[in-house]
Predict the 3D structure of the following.
Amino acid sequence: MNTVKNNVELMTRLNSSSQYLQSNDMRVTEVREGYAKVEMIIDEQILNVHGFVHGGALFSLADTVAGAASFASGRDSVTLTGTINYIKPGRGGKLIGIAQEVSRGRTTGVYEVFIFNDRNTLLSRATFTMFFLDSDRMKEKQTKEYMKKDGN
């Protein structure tokens, strides 16, 4: 129950505190440890000259959903690296980004992202490495726990 409450609070925090998400019609719709789902409305503002979703919009959605999944670990993070493969042209009414944690260490986490349209067509696949901002705090906590176990 407490985990569910924390996930709802995190979704609310992400959706309400980011002007970037709001101004780009993105919304975190699901979050749990190591996983997130973010939706983005497709409108004429994010289309390229060919009438498809601009690659920058797809990358931005991928970055956002990877960040949401990393935040679900209870740790704030920023993007360290991101790579994306554009598979099909973006069309439809909305984009759906899904991120899954691949690995999480003391300082970084790796997340795989898939972006679909509302017809369930895979548009992009990406991998992001996130840097945890609290790594010094985690290291300090581990040292204290070790010292406690060791009797110091």
About this structure: The chain has four helices and six strands.
